[in-house]
Design brief:
Layout: E1 27-34, H1 48-55, E2 59-68, H2 74-82, E3 85-96, E4 120-122, H3 130-133, H4 136-139, E5 142-152, E6 156-165, E7 174-183, E8 186-194, H5 203-216, E9 222-227, H6 232-238, E10 243-244, E11 261-266, E12 269-276, E13 287-293, H7 295-302, E14 323-324
Helix pairs in contact: 1-2
């Protein structure tokens, strides 16, 4: 594997956890991981829960989380194992195939992202052609939903979903899950998203999300994390005032050459540590960042926010809603 740009691949240390002596009360860990529905391109499963336990984040953004019909999804299984509160939002319906008996040592068959031998078939927005629909692999695949989730073991003050809509060539709707979490006395806004490809016209979604965040989240500490399907310089150009927590190659996992999985920060936040973690089965590498809140800066911008346990999942557009577990009523 090529150098991912990370300078530190050691496992998370005990001092990374919020409230520990090493971390301090204003320190927390956020991570983003595109899990590719928990399988490789052939449909062979990997240990998403174990990977999440190794990441050990206080807030974890999962892209391409899979929720089968009639059973717990990827995000729910991670949450159950780690005590997270989960806020999940479906972006597309489709099918997840069983492992392909023809699988070899490669992550997937070459140039087969949309072919009949791939593992994920998203067809709720754009149907596949007759060749794929008639294949035994497609017809035997498990139905379910593909989406995004934000998982938190920090107290959640409130949450909502901002719908971005669907671009003409995209197989999924797009959205951002916006969550306020409590880090000690401070409220931190976390925005988790999975953007479309720029070749599909994703700049429209970038501009829409930028306008929405400018209008709604205020001047306090904020984090924007997810698979942006875009390199760092244009991402930061779309979000002036935000900065990248790290610059590293995250995709494809077996020979990374592009930085598409991002953690952007804004406001009184300092990056204490940022790293790309090793490959675990997805085509993306996980990104893990420990942040520290500047208490003077946070107080100057927004004051010390008292914890609020109100649960709101009202979307600013079209009435989107996040699904939750535990005591979260969304």
């Amino acid at each position: 594997m090529e150098d991912t740009g990370s300078t530190d691949r050691t496992p998370p240390q005990e001092g990374d956890r919020p409230g520990s002596a090493a971390a301090g009360p204003g320190s927390f860990v956020i991570a983003t991981f595109n899990v590719h529905a928990g399988v490789d391109g052939w449909g062979r499963p990997f240990d998403v829960v174990g990977t999440a336990q190794g990441i050990d984040a206080d807030v974890l953004v999962l892209e391409e989380s899979w929720s089968p019909e009639g059973g717990p999804g990827t995000a729910e299984r991670v949450a159950a194992a780690m005590g997270y509160e989960v806020l999940a939002h479906p972006l597309a319906g489709g099918r997840l195939a069983s492992p392909d008996l023809r699988a070899d040592e490669r992550w997937m068959r070459s140039l087969d992202w949309r072919g009949a031998s791939h593992a994920i078939f998203l067809d709720s927005e754009v149907p596949f052609g007759s060749r794929v629909r008639s294949s035994a692999r497609y017809r035997s695949a498990q139905r379910g939903h593909w989406g995004i989730a934000v998982l938190s073991r920090l107290p959640v003050n409130h949450s909502r979903v901002f719908e971005l809509g669907r671009l003409a060539r995209d197989r999924a709707q797009r959205a951002a899950v916006i969550v306020s979490v409590q880090v000690g006395p401070f409220a931190v806004t976390v925005v988790g998203t999975h953007m479309s490809h720029i070749t599909y016209g994703a700049f429209r979604h970038y501009l829409r999300l930028r306008r929405h965040l400018r209008a709604t989240i205020g001047p306090g500490p904020a984090v924007l994390a997810g698979d942006m399907n875009l390199w760092g310089p244009p991402v930061t150009a779309f979000f002036p005032g935000w900065s990248r927590a790290l610059r590293a190659k995250t995709w494809p996992a077996w020979r990374p050459h592009s930085h598409v999985d991002h953690v952007l920060v804004r406001g009184p936040l300092r990056v204490a540590e940022a790293r790309v973690l090793p490959a675990s089965g997805s085509d993306h590498l996980p990104v893990r960042v420990r942040l520290e809140i500047d208490p003077l800066g946070a107080a100057d911008r927004a004051g010390m926010a008292a914890p609020s346990r109100a649960r709101t999942c009202a979307s600013a557009e079209r009435g989107g809603a996040a699904s939750g577990s535990g005591t979260h009523g969304c």
